[in-house]
């Protein structure tokens, strides 16, 4: 009866299968039939990028039983539907929606289906559209990015000159003016003069605010105390939009916070007045928030591209330490490229930073906006950090879109080494996992460009969206492989995502830097052996090495305080195999996922 039941179910499944696109799933093996049916369902649901990734996987699978011509037919169908979708968006002048579709076509080498377009051309249209609706900061970002990517249109330079004059950005104004002169573009006198001057510190102070979050009364030891969060912020938009840190205003948008919370700002010259404000968009990964107040600022900051900070360079910070408004402090750049966040690099500075400085602007010695102050280490005076504005600017469109900013990802954890960017883990169900990326694969290129640093490939992905198709090249055991990947939405905490989908033992590699293998068990205790230790990881710094036997005594994940603990008994080879108790601790916000 069991065999008959299975046979009947199989017949029903095959009978219900359609022949969309001329493909008949019943003609291939069972597993491939399921995969093919999945592709067809994604096509019906308009999930074109995901469907193309699956087709790419099947085409390079050595065990695939589906005829190549049928896969090629499906591939052509997806590409044509992408091209048709792009054409519709262009016809409707929905350039922001057309951009990710074009990026998908370009990512798989099919940009020739839209020969009159390019990424810079689309960004220019987006800049013009944003400018016409009053979104000058977004228009400025899109125009600068279009120029950086090789935009050649005369109207691009004219728009940049107009925006930089209106925003008072001397850096970009001078850049655009020189570019126009080099190209022999004639500009009217009113565009060329007067030149934009560098704002004074007094002007910039007027563009900063104190962020004040009233969270009611906090009870401690039977006594009530005012619960206040104080931070800093600065205007980036003449309509009253300003930037600050997410952790300053978290109670306003955190769904798990159930207490009282009211957000206000205090202007630099009206410190006695609390002006109501609201959070428009926020980004927990980069610790950023876009806030709106119904005021017209006297000064708004704008960004003029990478400041190329050098260690030892002079910088200043403006903020409200301990609530003391209009405080200006100075110092130097202590280091750049610090891996402090999940994505991107941080600037280490010795500028005096205190409670209340979070969210304030960081400026170089020429008065250019270079970052946002976000953290300091209380135990160590002069060890403070800021987010480079290169990264902030990439996030800005997502903040203006409202709610929580979402970012794309492949879903792989990688380590940076002499051999390249090596995959050490893939999150179950992620694009990297579904496309067949494995531990030990070496990433050689993304969309034809090679990367040697984790931050650089994260930056490249941040310029894209999801779902967008990219082409990845990687090496496996000496063989070069290539495939299409459909970028998905990055979760806030990849480690927590992994722990919810995978075995704990598998997640120890990206979390602590060690791979273990079960070797046996006795009663309730499981015995393991270390099979790999990543150089520079927590496990490596603890002194663990390959083939060390161990047993796990405790495991704890604290999502409130954002850390994981692993307690083990281990016989370290480096210590003569003497047994010792060791506790490993790691933050959940690891920075190795792309």
Describe this structure in words.
- The structure is a single chain.
- The chain has 594 residues and is of the alpha+beta class.
- The protein has five domains: 2-91, no CATH class; 119-197, Serine Threonine Protein Phosphatase 5, Tetratricopeptide repeat (Alpha Horseshoe), CATH 1.25.40; 198-405, Thrombin, subunit H; 408-489, Pdz3 Domain (Roll); 494-587, Pdz3 Domain, CATH 2.30.42.
- It is 34% helix and 30% strand.
- The strands form five sheets. A six-stranded antiparallel barrel has the order 1-2-3-6-5-4.
- Helix 5 packs antiparallel against helix 6, helix 6 crosses helix 8 (154-167) and helix 7 (136-148) packs across helix 8.
- It is globular, with a radius of gyration of 27 Å.
- Residues 1-28 have low confidence and may be disordered.
For the structure shown, list the relevant keywords.
594 residues, alpha+beta, Serine Threonine Protein Phosphatase 5, Tetratricopeptide repeat, Thrombin, subunit H, six-stranded antiparallel beta barrel, 25 strands, disordered N terminus
What structural class do the secondary elements suggest? alpha+beta
CATH class value of the largest domain:
Mainly Beta
Tally of individual helices: 18
Strand arrangement, major sheet = 1-2-3-6-5-4
Entry summary:
It is built from 18 helices and 25 strands. It is of the alpha+beta class and 594 residues long.
Could you give the topology of this structure?
Layout lengths: L1 H15 L13 H15 L3 H13 L7 H24 L3 H13 L11 H14 L3 H13 L5 H14 L2 H13 L6 H4 L8 H5 L2 E13 L2 E13 L5 E4 L1 H8 L8 E6 L2 E14 L4 E6 L20 E6 L7 E12 L7 E4 L11 E4 L4 E8 L7 E5 H13 L1 E2 L3 E2 L2 E6 L2 E7 L4 H4 L7 E5 L7 H9 L6 E8 L2 E8 L1 E2 L4 H8 L2 H9 L1 E9 L2 E9 L4 H5 L6 E10 L4 E9 L7 E9 L7
Parallel strand pairs: 5-13
Antiparallel strand pairs: 1-2, 1-4, 2-3, 3-6, 4-5, 5-6, 7-8, 7-10, 8-9, 9-12, 10-11, 11-12, 14-20, 15-16, 16-17, 17-18, 18-19, 21-22, 22-23, 23-24, 24-25
């Amino acid at each position: 009866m069991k065999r008959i039941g299975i046979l009947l179910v199989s017949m029903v499944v095959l009978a219900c299968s359609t022949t969309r696109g001329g493909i008949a799933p019943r003609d291939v093996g069972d597993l491939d039939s399921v995969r093919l049916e999945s592709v067809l369902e994604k096509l019906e649901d308009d999930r074109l990028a995901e469907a193309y990734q699956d087709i790419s996987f099947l085409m390079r699978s050595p065990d695939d039983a589906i005829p190549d011509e049928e896969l090629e037919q499906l591939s052509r169908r997806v590409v044509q539907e992408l091209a048709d979708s792009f054409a519709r968006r262009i016809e409707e002048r929905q350039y922001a929606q057309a951009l990710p579709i074009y990026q998908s076509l370009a990512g798989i080498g099919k940009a020739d289906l839209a020969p009159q377009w390019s990424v810079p051309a689309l960004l220019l249209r987006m800049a013009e559209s944003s400018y016409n609706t009053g979104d000058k900061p977004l228009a400025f970002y899109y125009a600068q990015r279009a120029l950086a990517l090789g935009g050649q249109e005369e109207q691009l330079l004219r728009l940049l000159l107009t925006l930089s004059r209106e925003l008072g950005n001397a850096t970009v104004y001078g850049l655009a003016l020189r570019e126009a002169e080099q190209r022999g573009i004639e500009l009217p006198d009113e565009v060329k003069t007067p030149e934009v001057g560098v704002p004074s510190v007094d002007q910039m102070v007027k563009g900063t605010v104190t962020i004040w979050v009233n969270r009611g009364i906090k009870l401690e030891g039977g006594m009530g105390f005012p619960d206040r969060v104080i931070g800093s912020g600065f205007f980036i938009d003449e309509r009253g939009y300003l930037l600050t840190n997410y952790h300053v205003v978290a109670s306003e948008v955190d769904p798990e916070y159930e207490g009282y919370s009211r957000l206000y700002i205090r202007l630099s010259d009206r410190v006695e007045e609390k002006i109501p404000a609201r959070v428009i968009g926020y980004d927990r990964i980069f610790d950023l928030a876009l806030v709106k107040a119904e005021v017209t600022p006297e000064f708004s900051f704008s960004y003029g591209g990478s400041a190329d900070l050098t260690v030892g360079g002079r910088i200043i910070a403006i903020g409200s330490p301990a609530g003391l408004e209009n405080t200006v402090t100075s110092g130097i750049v202590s280091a750049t490229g610090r891996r402090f966040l999940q994505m991107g690099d941080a600037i280490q500075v010795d500028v005096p930073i205190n409670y209340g400085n979070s969210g304030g602007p960081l400026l170089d010695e020429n008065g250019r906006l270079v970052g946002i102050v976000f953290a300091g280490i209380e135990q160590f005076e002069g060890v403070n950090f800021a987010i480079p504005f290169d990264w902030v600017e990439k996030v800005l469109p997502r903040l203006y879109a409202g709610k929580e900013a979402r970012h794309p990802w492949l879903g792989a954890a990688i380590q940076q080494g002499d051999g390249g960017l090596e995959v050490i883990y893939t999150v179950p169900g992620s694009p990297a996992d579904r496309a067949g990326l494995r531990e030990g694969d070496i990433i050689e290129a993304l969309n034809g460009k090679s990367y040697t640093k984790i931050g650089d490939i994260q930056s490249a992905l941040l310029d894209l969206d999801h779902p967008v198709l990219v082409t990845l090249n990687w090496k496996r055991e000496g063989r070069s492989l290539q495939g299409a990947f459909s970028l998905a939405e990055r979760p806030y905490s990849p480690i927590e995502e992994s722990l919810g989908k995978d075995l704990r033992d598998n997640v120890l590699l990206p979390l602590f830097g060690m791979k273990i293998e079960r070797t046996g068990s006795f009663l309730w205790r499981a015995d393991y052996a270390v099979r790999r230790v990543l150089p520079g990881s927590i496990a490596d710094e603890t002194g663990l090495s390959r083939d060390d036997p161990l047993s796990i005594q405790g495991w704890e994940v604290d999502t409130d305080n954002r850390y994981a603990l692993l307690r083990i008994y281990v016989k370290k080879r480096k210590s003569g195999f003497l047994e010792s108790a060791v506790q490993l601790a790691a933050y959940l916000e690891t920075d190795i996922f792309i």
